[in-house]
Specification:
This protein has helices at 2-35, 40-65, 70-93, 95-153, 159-186, 189-194, 196-209, 228-249, 291-300; strands spanning 214-219, 253-261, 264-271, 304-309, 315-322. By secondary structure, it is of the alpha+beta class. The chain has 3 domains: 2-93; 124-186; 189-322, Histidine kinase-like ATPase, C-terminal domain (Heat Shock Protein 90). The protein has a 5-stranded mixed sheet with strand order 1-2-3-5-4. A hairpin with a 5-residue loop joins strand 4 (304-309) and strand 5 (315-322). Helix 1 packs antiparallel against helix 2, helix 4 (95-153) packs across helix 9 (291-300) and helix 7 (196-209) runs parallel beside helix 8.
Amino acid sequence: MYDYIFYIMVRLIALIISIVLQIIAASIALRFMKLTKYRLSWILLSLSFVFMAVRKIIQLCEYFRGTPSYTWQMLDEWMGVLVSVMITVGVILIRELFYSLKRAEIDRSRSEKRVINAITNTEENERKRFAKDLHDGLGPILSTVKMSLSALAERIKDPAGTVILNNTNHLINEAISTIKDISNNLSPHILTNFGLASAINTFATKINQTKAIEIDFKSNMEDKRLENEKEVVIYRAVCELINNSILHSGASRIEIELNKHEKFVTLQFYDNGRGFDTSSLSREDLKGMGLSNIETRVRSVDGVFILESTPGKGTSALIKMID
Protein backbone atom coordinates (compact mmCIF):
# COMPACT_ATOMS: atom_id res chain seq x y z
CA MET A 1 0.00 0.00 0.00
CA TYR A 2 2.76 2.44 0.94
CA ASP A 3 4.71 1.49 -2.18
CA TYR A 4 1.70 2.34 -4.36
CA ILE A 5 1.22 5.72 -2.64
CA PHE A 6 4.92 6.44 -3.04
CA TYR A 7 4.69 5.54 -6.72
CA ILE A 8 1.69 7.85 -7.19
CA MET A 9 3.44 10.76 -5.48
CA VAL A 10 6.64 10.31 -7.46
CA ARG A 11 4.65 10.24 -10.72
CA LEU A 12 2.75 13.40 -9.73
CA ILE A 13 5.96 15.26 -8.88
CA ALA A 14 7.56 14.12 -12.14
CA LEU A 15 4.53 15.34 -14.15
CA ILE A 16 4.54 18.74 -12.42
CA ILE A 17 8.29 19.22 -12.93
CA SER A 18 7.98 18.14 -16.57
CA ILE A 19 5.10 20.58 -17.20
CA VAL A 20 6.98 23.49 -15.60
CA LEU A 21 10.17 22.80 -17.58
CA GLN A 22 8.33 22.40 -20.89
CA ILE A 23 6.36 25.62 -20.33
CA ILE A 24 9.66 27.43 -19.64
CA ALA A 25 11.23 25.89 -22.77
CA ALA A 26 8.18 26.84 -24.86
CA SER A 27 8.22 30.45 -23.62
CA ILE A 28 11.96 30.80 -24.34
CA ALA A 29 11.54 29.28 -27.80
CA LEU A 30 8.65 31.66 -28.58
CA ARG A 31 10.78 34.64 -27.54
CA PHE A 32 13.52 33.55 -29.96
CA MET A 33 11.08 33.59 -32.89
CA LYS A 34 11.63 37.31 -33.39
CA LEU A 35 15.41 36.88 -33.37
CA THR A 36 15.11 34.22 -36.09
CA LYS A 37 12.88 36.56 -38.13
CA TYR A 38 9.91 34.21 -37.73
CA ARG A 39 11.41 31.42 -39.78
CA LEU A 40 9.05 28.49 -40.29
CA SER A 41 11.58 26.01 -38.90
CA TRP A 42 11.78 27.78 -35.55
CA ILE A 43 7.99 28.37 -35.43
CA LEU A 44 7.41 24.63 -35.81
CA LEU A 45 9.96 23.76 -33.16
CA SER A 46 8.50 26.37 -30.78
CA LEU A 47 4.96 25.07 -31.30
CA SER A 48 6.18 21.52 -30.71
CA PHE A 49 7.37 22.61 -27.24
CA VAL A 50 3.94 24.14 -26.61
CA PHE A 51 2.08 20.95 -27.63
CA MET A 52 4.45 18.81 -25.56
CA ALA A 53 3.52 20.92 -22.53
CA VAL A 54 -0.18 20.53 -23.41
CA ARG A 55 0.27 16.73 -23.59
CA LYS A 56 1.73 16.72 -20.09
CA ILE A 57 -1.17 18.84 -18.84
CA ILE A 58 -3.58 16.30 -20.36
CA GLN A 59 -1.70 13.50 -18.58
CA LEU A 60 -1.95 15.46 -15.31
CA CYS A 61 -5.70 15.85 -15.81
CA GLU A 62 -5.98 12.12 -16.46
CA TYR A 63 -4.02 11.54 -13.29
CA PHE A 64 -6.54 13.50 -11.18
CA ARG A 65 -9.53 11.92 -12.95
CA GLY A 66 -8.43 8.53 -11.78
CA THR A 67 -10.25 6.70 -14.56
CA PRO A 68 -8.64 6.82 -18.02
CA SER A 69 -10.69 8.46 -20.79
CA TYR A 70 -10.51 6.98 -24.28
CA THR A 71 -11.11 10.41 -25.88
CA TRP A 72 -8.32 12.06 -23.93
CA GLN A 73 -5.96 9.19 -24.69
CA MET A 74 -6.72 9.47 -28.43
CA LEU A 75 -6.17 13.24 -28.27
CA ASP A 76 -2.88 12.70 -26.45
CA GLU A 77 -1.67 10.16 -29.02
CA TRP A 78 -2.54 12.34 -32.03
CA MET A 79 -0.90 15.33 -30.39
CA GLY A 80 2.19 13.15 -30.03
CA VAL A 81 2.04 12.46 -33.77
CA LEU A 82 1.63 16.18 -34.48
CA VAL A 83 4.60 17.02 -32.24
CA SER A 84 6.75 14.40 -34.01
CA VAL A 85 5.82 15.80 -37.43
CA MET A 86 6.56 19.40 -36.40
CA ILE A 87 9.91 18.45 -34.88
CA THR A 88 10.88 16.44 -37.98
CA VAL A 89 9.91 19.22 -40.40
CA GLY A 90 11.47 21.88 -38.16
CA VAL A 91 14.78 20.03 -37.94
CA ILE A 92 14.82 19.62 -41.74
CA LEU A 93 14.07 23.31 -42.31
CA ILE A 94 16.41 24.60 -39.60
CA ARG A 95 19.33 23.73 -41.86
CA GLU A 96 18.49 26.94 -43.71
CA LEU A 97 19.16 28.87 -40.48
CA PHE A 98 22.59 27.31 -40.11
CA TYR A 99 23.35 27.95 -43.78
CA SER A 100 22.37 31.60 -43.25
CA LEU A 101 24.69 31.84 -40.25
CA LYS A 102 27.48 30.26 -42.29
CA ARG A 103 26.90 32.68 -45.17
CA ALA A 104 26.89 35.59 -42.71
CA GLU A 105 30.22 34.40 -41.30
CA ILE A 106 31.69 34.10 -44.81
CA ASP A 107 30.44 37.60 -45.71
CA ARG A 108 31.89 38.97 -42.46
CA SER A 109 35.24 37.34 -43.21
CA ARG A 110 35.25 38.73 -46.75
CA SER A 111 34.34 42.19 -45.51
CA GLU A 112 37.15 42.02 -42.94
CA LYS A 113 39.63 41.04 -45.65
CA ARG A 114 38.44 43.87 -47.90
CA VAL A 115 38.89 46.37 -45.07
CA ILE A 116 42.38 45.07 -44.22
CA ASN A 117 43.36 45.10 -47.90
CA ALA A 118 42.06 48.64 -48.25
CA ILE A 119 44.05 49.72 -45.19
CA THR A 120 47.17 47.97 -46.51
CA ASN A 121 46.81 49.53 -49.96
CA THR A 122 46.18 52.97 -48.47
CA GLU A 123 49.22 52.62 -46.23
CA GLU A 124 51.43 51.51 -49.14
CA ASN A 125 50.16 54.35 -51.33
CA GLU A 126 50.94 56.84 -48.58
CA ARG A 127 54.38 55.30 -48.16
CA LYS A 128 55.01 55.69 -51.90
CA ARG A 129 53.71 59.26 -51.91
CA PHE A 130 55.82 60.25 -48.90
CA ALA A 131 58.91 58.50 -50.30
CA LYS A 132 58.44 60.26 -53.65
CA ASP A 133 57.94 63.66 -51.99
CA LEU A 134 60.99 63.09 -49.80
CA HIS A 135 63.19 61.95 -52.68
CA ASP A 136 61.97 64.42 -55.30
CA GLY A 137 61.49 67.34 -52.94
CA LEU A 138 64.27 67.36 -50.37
CA GLY A 139 66.81 65.42 -52.47
CA PRO A 140 67.19 68.05 -55.22
CA ILE A 141 67.49 70.83 -52.65
CA LEU A 142 70.40 69.09 -50.92
CA SER A 143 71.98 68.35 -54.29
CA THR A 144 71.74 72.05 -55.17
CA VAL A 145 73.32 72.98 -51.84
CA LYS A 146 76.14 70.53 -52.55
CA MET A 147 76.75 72.13 -55.96
CA SER A 148 76.82 75.56 -54.36
CA LEU A 149 79.37 74.38 -51.81
CA SER A 150 81.51 72.94 -54.61
CA ALA A 151 81.42 76.32 -56.35
CA LEU A 152 82.22 78.07 -53.09
CA ALA A 153 85.21 75.80 -52.42
CA GLU A 154 87.20 77.46 -55.22
CA ARG A 155 86.91 80.87 -53.51
CA ILE A 156 87.87 79.80 -50.00
CA LYS A 157 91.62 79.87 -49.45
CA ASP A 158 91.66 79.89 -45.66
CA PRO A 159 92.60 76.38 -44.34
CA ALA A 160 90.12 76.61 -41.44
CA GLY A 161 87.35 77.59 -43.84
CA THR A 162 88.28 74.70 -46.12
CA VAL A 163 87.94 72.23 -43.22
CA ILE A 164 84.52 73.61 -42.34
CA LEU A 165 83.48 73.44 -45.97
CA ASN A 166 84.64 69.84 -46.30
CA ASN A 167 82.80 68.83 -43.12
CA THR A 168 79.64 70.52 -44.37
CA ASN A 169 79.98 68.78 -47.71
CA HIS A 170 80.41 65.46 -45.91
CA LEU A 171 77.28 66.04 -43.83
CA ILE A 172 75.28 66.89 -46.94
CA ASN A 173 76.46 63.66 -48.57
CA GLU A 174 75.31 61.75 -45.51
CA ALA A 175 71.96 63.56 -45.57
CA ILE A 176 71.43 62.68 -49.25
CA SER A 177 72.35 59.04 -48.55
CA THR A 178 70.02 58.95 -45.54
CA ILE A 179 67.14 60.36 -47.57
CA LYS A 180 67.68 57.67 -50.21
CA ASP A 181 67.67 54.97 -47.53
CA ILE A 182 64.55 56.33 -45.84
CA SER A 183 62.78 56.67 -49.19
CA ASN A 184 63.73 53.15 -50.18
CA ASN A 185 62.65 51.70 -46.83
CA LEU A 186 59.30 53.46 -47.07
CA SER A 187 58.64 52.19 -50.59
CA PRO A 188 61.39 49.95 -51.98
CA HIS A 189 61.52 50.39 -55.75
CA ILE A 190 63.27 47.01 -55.99
CA LEU A 191 60.10 45.30 -54.72
CA THR A 192 58.01 47.04 -57.37
CA ASN A 193 60.45 46.60 -60.24
CA PHE A 194 62.25 43.33 -59.53
CA GLY A 195 60.07 41.34 -57.16
CA LEU A 196 59.97 39.92 -53.67
CA ALA A 197 63.14 37.82 -53.69
CA SER A 198 65.30 40.73 -54.90
CA ALA A 199 63.79 43.11 -52.35
CA ILE A 200 64.38 40.73 -49.41
CA ASN A 201 67.90 39.98 -50.62
CA THR A 202 68.72 43.71 -50.89
CA PHE A 203 67.30 44.38 -47.43
CA ALA A 204 69.27 41.46 -45.96
CA THR A 205 72.46 42.67 -47.65
CA LYS A 206 72.08 46.13 -46.09
CA ILE A 207 71.61 44.56 -42.64
CA ASN A 208 74.66 42.34 -43.17
CA GLN A 209 76.76 45.39 -43.99
CA THR A 210 76.06 46.79 -40.53
CA LYS A 211 77.64 43.66 -38.92
CA ALA A 212 74.87 43.79 -36.31
CA ILE A 213 73.59 40.38 -37.32
CA GLU A 214 74.23 37.81 -40.07
CA ILE A 215 71.33 37.03 -42.41
CA ASP A 216 71.42 34.01 -44.72
CA PHE A 217 68.77 34.33 -47.43
CA LYS A 218 67.92 31.62 -49.96
CA SER A 219 65.19 31.51 -52.59
CA ASN A 220 64.09 29.77 -55.78
CA MET A 221 61.95 32.76 -56.81
CA GLU A 222 64.56 35.06 -58.37
CA ASP A 223 62.60 35.42 -61.61
CA LYS A 224 59.09 34.78 -60.26
CA ARG A 225 56.51 37.40 -59.31
CA LEU A 226 53.43 37.29 -57.10
CA GLU A 227 50.42 39.54 -56.86
CA ASN A 228 51.45 42.98 -55.61
CA GLU A 229 49.42 42.69 -52.39
CA LYS A 230 51.02 39.34 -51.50
CA GLU A 231 54.53 40.61 -52.22
CA VAL A 232 53.96 43.65 -50.01
CA VAL A 233 52.52 41.54 -47.16
CA ILE A 234 55.43 39.06 -47.19
CA TYR A 235 58.07 41.80 -47.52
CA ARG A 236 56.65 43.82 -44.62
CA ALA A 237 56.39 40.63 -42.54
CA VAL A 238 60.05 39.77 -43.19
CA CYS A 239 61.15 43.30 -42.26
CA GLU A 240 59.13 43.12 -39.04
CA LEU A 241 60.51 39.69 -38.11
CA ILE A 242 64.11 40.82 -38.75
CA ASN A 243 63.53 43.99 -36.74
CA ASN A 244 62.13 41.93 -33.84
CA SER A 245 65.14 39.62 -33.91
CA ILE A 246 67.59 42.53 -33.84
CA LEU A 247 65.77 44.45 -31.09
CA HIS A 248 64.46 41.68 -28.85
CA SER A 249 66.09 38.29 -29.44
CA GLY A 250 69.82 38.98 -29.13
CA ALA A 251 70.33 36.68 -32.13
CA SER A 252 73.59 36.54 -34.06
CA ARG A 253 72.20 34.75 -37.13
CA ILE A 254 68.97 34.70 -39.12
CA GLU A 255 68.03 32.18 -41.78
CA ILE A 256 65.34 33.00 -44.35
CA GLU A 257 64.07 30.76 -47.13
CA LEU A 258 61.56 31.94 -49.74
CA ASN A 259 60.40 29.15 -52.04
CA LYS A 260 57.64 28.35 -54.48
CA HIS A 261 56.49 24.74 -54.79
CA GLU A 262 53.74 24.14 -57.35
CA LYS A 263 50.97 26.57 -56.38
CA PHE A 264 52.18 27.36 -52.85
CA VAL A 265 54.62 30.04 -51.70
CA THR A 266 56.34 29.57 -48.34
CA LEU A 267 58.62 31.80 -46.33
CA GLN A 268 60.53 30.17 -43.47
CA PHE A 269 62.24 32.35 -40.89
CA TYR A 270 64.56 31.31 -38.06
CA ASP A 271 66.82 33.13 -35.62
CA ASN A 272 69.16 31.69 -32.99
CA GLY A 273 68.17 34.21 -30.35
CA ARG A 274 67.05 33.71 -26.77
CA GLY A 275 63.49 32.87 -27.79
CA PHE A 276 60.42 33.52 -25.65
CA ASP A 277 57.25 31.94 -24.33
CA THR A 278 54.60 32.44 -27.06
CA SER A 279 51.84 32.31 -24.44
CA SER A 280 53.15 35.66 -23.15
CA LEU A 281 52.34 37.52 -26.37
CA SER A 282 49.38 39.19 -24.67
CA ARG A 283 51.69 40.98 -22.25
CA GLU A 284 51.99 44.74 -22.59
CA ASP A 285 55.75 44.70 -23.21
CA LEU A 286 55.33 42.42 -26.23
CA LYS A 287 52.37 44.09 -27.89
CA GLY A 288 54.62 46.37 -29.90
CA MET A 289 56.34 43.50 -31.70
CA GLY A 290 53.85 43.64 -34.56
CA LEU A 291 53.27 39.87 -34.65
CA SER A 292 49.50 40.21 -34.51
CA ASN A 293 49.73 42.76 -37.32
CA ILE A 294 51.68 40.24 -39.42
CA GLU A 295 49.08 37.54 -38.78
CA THR A 296 46.20 39.86 -39.68
CA ARG A 297 47.82 40.97 -42.94
CA VAL A 298 48.77 37.42 -43.94
CA ARG A 299 45.18 36.26 -43.32
CA SER A 300 43.90 39.12 -45.49
CA VAL A 301 45.57 37.51 -48.54
CA ASP A 302 44.35 34.00 -47.58
CA GLY A 303 47.68 33.03 -46.07
CA VAL A 304 48.74 31.27 -42.88
CA PHE A 305 51.18 32.62 -40.30
CA ILE A 306 52.66 30.24 -37.71
CA LEU A 307 55.07 31.39 -35.02
CA GLU A 308 57.01 29.04 -32.77
CA SER A 309 59.49 29.93 -30.07
CA THR A 310 61.00 28.32 -26.99
CA PRO A 311 63.10 30.12 -24.38
CA GLY A 312 66.75 29.45 -25.15
CA LYS A 313 66.05 27.82 -28.53
CA GLY A 314 65.37 30.71 -30.86
CA THR A 315 62.30 31.69 -32.85
CA SER A 316 60.90 30.33 -36.09
CA ALA A 317 58.06 31.54 -38.27
CA LEU A 318 56.26 30.19 -41.31
CA ILE A 319 54.20 32.11 -43.87
CA LYS A 320 52.33 30.04 -46.43
CA MET A 321 49.90 31.15 -49.13
CA ILE A 322 48.59 30.20 -52.54
CA ASP A 323 50.34 31.83 -55.49
